[in-house]
Amino acid sequence: MKRTFREIILTFSLCLIATFGFTQSKEIKIEFLGNCGLYLTDGTTNIYTDFPYKSGAHGYMEFDESELDSIRENSIFIFTHKHSDHYSEKNIKKVIKEKGGKKYGSWNIEELENLKKLVPNFSVQVFKTKHKWSSKHYSYLITWHNKKIFLSGDTESAETIGTIKNIDWAFVPYWVLLDAKENDIKIDAKMFGVYHLATVQIPSAKENYDEIENIRPMVEKGEKITIELQTE
């Protein structure tokens, strides 16, 4: 398979981390980038999920062009599917051309699963999930430094997440929580980040979830979450 020079550099960089070790922070930081977009870092490896998308697509959140300039070099980009409020071919091409890195999604699932060989203390479990507007939709369970982070994407059903145990953070749209309630599905998660809210849904999300201790509505781009890691 033909590989670009930037892809070779990214793989080489990840191999160096895996081989020689690294100095990491004692936490995983997660920043909300709008819609289902998240930026995750342990201080060494940088991961973007469902970002960059097309700003303002389908009436969802917008972002300034300058936010693309702030993306870290040689990052990992993971996409649940290719709808424009989750994925922009134009934007991701621009970012990878200027910053390096590699994108993962329905087109290279096996490579995504094999990232565990390159990134220390990291793995991705892949679930093909239902989304009535997309035949190729995936949800992901990232296990990183023994912390479990579930990324739901646009799936309408709580069926998949209901089978997973001991999730530290579950990022889900509100309709997954509704589906779980309606179908009596128990979601085993310590914390929930409710994302992919349209502007008109934000007031009711705040009203419904702000007083619930383990549910955090993601309503402002730039919001940050910190997951403390156990000291080894």
Automatic annotation (TrEMBL):
InterPro entries: RibonucZ/Hydroxyglut_hydro, UPF0173_UPF0282_UlaG_hydrolase
Domain of life, per lineage: Bacteria
Record PANTHER family: METALLO-BETA-LACTAMASE DOMAIN-CONTAINING PROTEIN, UPF0173 METAL-DEPENDENT HYDROLASE MJ1163-RELATED
Name of the protein: Beta-lactamase superfamily domain-containing protein
